[in-house]
Amino acid sequence: MGFRNIDEVISRLRAQTGSDRLGFWKYFLQEDAYKNCEQNVSIMHPFLVRRHLMIVPAVFRQIDSFIQLLYPVRPEIWTEWVMPSWKSEEWVEANRTPGRPSWLSQEEYENLRKALAESGLKSQLNYYKVAISDANIEEDNKIPKEAHSVWKPALFIAASKDFINVPAIGRAQMAQYVPDAKIVELNVGHWAFLEATEEVNRELEAWLDSLGFSSFSFTWISSTISVSTMDVDIADDEQHQQQLSQLQGSRAAGKRTVVVDDAHPFELEAYISSYSGKFARTYIDRLLHIMSVCPLLAPQALQLAIEEALKGRDTTLYQEIFHRYQRAYAEAGDEIPELSALAEPDQQWIEETNAKNQAERTKLEVELKTYSSNMIKESIRMAHRDLGDFYRSVGEHNNALKHYTKSREFCTTSQHLLDMCMSIIETGPEAPAGAAQAQKEKKNAERLKVQTKLDIATGLSHLGQNNYEKAAQTLLKAGPMKGLEEWTGKLIAPGDIAIYATLCALATFPRSTIRAQILDNEDFGTYIEQEPYIRELLESYISNRFKTVLEILERYSTRHYLDIHLYQHVQNLTNLIRSKSLVLYFQPFSAIKLERMSQAFGWSVDELEQQIVALIQSGEIKARVDRQNKVGLIAILKAKETDQRAALFAKAIKSGQEMQAANRKLLLRMRLYVPDPVVARLQQADLVVKPPKGQQQGFNFGGGHPSELLGGDY
Known about the structure:
Blueprint: H1 6-17, H2 24-28, H3 33-38, H4 46-52, H5 64-70, H6 77-81, H7 87-93, H8 106-119, H9 122-131, H10 137-141, E1 154-159, H11 167-177, E2 181-186, H12 192-195, H13 197-211, H14 217-224, E3 226-227, E4 232-233, H15 238-253, H16 268-272, H17 281-293, H18 298-309, H19 315-332, H20 347-374, H21 377-393, H22 397-406, H23 414-427, H24 432-440, H25 445-449, H26 451-464, H27 468-476, H28 494-508, H29 511-519, H30 522-528, H31 532-542, H32 546-555, H33 557-561, H34 570-586, E5 591-593, H35 594-601, H36 605-618, E6 623-631, E7 634-639, H37 644-672, H38 677-684, H39 706-709
Parallel strand pairs: 1-2
Antiparallel strand pairs: 3-4, 5-7, 6-7
Helix pairs in contact: 11-19, 17-18, 17-19, 18-19, 20-21, 21-22, 22-23, 23-24, 24-26, 26-27, 27-28, 28-34, 29-31, 31-32, 35-36
């Protein structure tokens, strides 16, 4: 509908939010609004005098009133004097001047006053008249629908105290039309670039750095454009375009397209059925991930995601489903149908849900203010909790975390603290903050009930940080599946825990630990039963059937890559498991033909040799590839021979040196405790401790101050 009927827009906003929000438009659309504002000028300007055919005194009613309405000292002024209809006119007529905002210097303020006086306000206010007219409607209708969205990197800086262009609406518009935009929210008013100049510049620089432009873009601009008093050299941008192409190519190379075929089977419906419950957000998040990395499954994932999203109230997530499919279609081309052939966004559901969400938000915020004014501690805690639950349900996780953490100071029992921590964990399972805080709480019956959840959340945190050993240790401590309670399907499936823990353990644990903590672990055995191939993988690894291990990893690689938590780690984990397998296979041998090893792993000799050489260079295998004494054309891998007698002597010498150093430190410590009778006898004996040859001479323990001993090499 746009702004073509401003009264209808304001009525709708009033019904949804309880405020006109755009009420100032009605004043600015009046024919004589600019005259009213121009009369309030504090400097003599003959042009304005002649135009209005009136005698103007040297001191006018202040234009400061109009400027200080647009550039308020406090952002909250807009809620009272800009958003309601006709209040802007009342402000100007009453000549209100609360003062110049601190973020606007006096020089900037004077320049602004001068510019407004010289140019007049008629042209500026014409913007609002054009906005409600149909002047551009024909041109707008010529824009194709597919061009409505921007698929390039973008930065959107929102202002949390901008009460007209509220961040929530901006986020929704970005999700709909600029899905790849990075969104940053600053705690300032409408004029963010003036109020927080340094912060805006930092965000711009960080965004450019993330795109890779900092390394060449500014250098390119400064080195290719030369300005002098006589001429301007126009730079050849061929080099710049080449660099941009390289940058885009490197980004594309970092994304992996997952293939589903007979060698890499994957049943989407069977997989996604493990995630269910009352609007399980992970259900949709996983489907969105699948659409991103496997375009061939995108049509099926689209239908499932839409069906689940309509059960909730997150309109931004609902619209993201359609944008994600459009990107998948752009990558797959004709291999999948167009979006219009499958589904269209339900605009009526979006509008109705947004209206309900706004009404619920207003109700909860009013309750929080009421409880805060009454200073009822328990009620304030519950109000913050309810607001956190609401924001989490509509996808505003930052606001949800803010209210959950604010409830901390109003918690009065250990159960309250535990509930707060669990809410934070459920808002972002990969964030370690909530899990770490909950782990620090004193062990009690309440915490023991959720220990399984805490272990899983901590394990996911370690996995996200590439700390695979700690991830395996923590996940393997998880108790029986019943400890997951409502998390089963809502946040994670039991089969996921088996996969994460097993892959991390195979990549980092010795075989004895794998057998003891996984295969002989009854509690963890129930998780393994959810994914039968995991037990086969473990048994093959323990039995030295490494070819089978690698075949299983390859066959189920699609399942691993399509997992939202595991996607970034599959390649690293596979490489670690492969390297450990090679080391374990070679361990019992002093020499072995590479041909025999290649048969055991199912590789060609050349592929195996590359892997072996890499492990030798990294020091994981202490051996050499013998090409001189090879049998036929096959090289031999020989372990480095160790002189056991020399090794034993070296170990004995090292132990003696360590013992000598420990004894000298003990004697020094005894010397510092003078009252001890044993030390007194040592002093009388004039004991001298000599260092090993080649070191500084020792100190006489019979004389001198103890502090003198600290100067020696101990």
